[in-house]
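Appendix C: a fully annotated inverse folding record. The material below is reproduced so that readers can follow the format used throughout the book. The structure is listed first as tokens, followed by the designed sequence.
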């Protein structure tokens, strides 16, 4: 039985990729892991692929736990993708650049497959993008970074694309099915110790891309 506290502890170490999939708790699980990192004083980079970032749930959870949500929300840096090509750019270019500038920050890649359920995206193209995401995620993990990747179930009419999840599995160091009745998630956050600093490396690049991508949650 894996609690959310144990999942958060996994991200307290470098080179971790936790893949969360299934319903109904996958997004709640990701938010709780993010809050655990925020309570430890960390910044969290959040790539949103389904345009469903739940600001209300995070705010109410923080209040329930007796924490002022506003300082936490300022340290969640969100970048939203509205097409598979924007998602590709965010995960393969913008996120690596951001993490190299803040190497102690964990990242959440939320519902990257949501954009691939769109029937207007050819399956071959969706598969190519997901393969690129998997390579980028593996590369980030090998560089010592910590990531959470969430995948909700596909809509009923897109069940034939469920195999895209299998392309992400090899990139993960831990895979958790949130729909598994033996998996439970604790009611409150943890405060894991921040990982050892690896130093900060400034990376050059397109300043417009950097400034346009990441916005605080508030």
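Designed amino acids, in order:
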């Amino acid at each position: 039985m894996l609690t959310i506290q144990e999942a958060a502890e996994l991200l307290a170490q470098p080179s971790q990729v936790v893949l969360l999939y299934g319903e109904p708790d996958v997004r709640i699980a990701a938010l709780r892991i993010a809050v655990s990192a925020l309570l430890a004083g960390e910044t969290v980079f959040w790539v949103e692929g389904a345009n469903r970032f739940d600001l209300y749930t995070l705010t109410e959870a923080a209040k329930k736990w007796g924490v002022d949500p506003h300082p936490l929300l300022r340290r969640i840096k969100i970048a939203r993708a509205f097409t598979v090509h924007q998602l590709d750019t965010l995960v393969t270019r913008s996120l690596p650049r951001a993490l190299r500038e803040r190497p102690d920050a964990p990242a959440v890649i939320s519902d990257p497959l949501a954009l691939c359920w769109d029937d207007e995206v050819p399956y071959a193209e969706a598969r190519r993008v997901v393969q690129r995401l998997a390579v980028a995620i593996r590369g980030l993990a090998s560089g010592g970074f910590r990531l959470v990747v969430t995948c909700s179930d596909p809509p009923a009419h897109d069940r034939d694309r469920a195999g895209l999840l299998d392309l992400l599995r090899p990139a993960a160091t831990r895979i958790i099915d949130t729909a598994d009745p033996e998996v439970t998630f604790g009611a409150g956050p943890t405060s894991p110790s921040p990982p050892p600093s690896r130093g900060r490396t400034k990376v050059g690049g397109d300043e417009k891309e950097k400034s346009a991508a990441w916005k605080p949650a508030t």
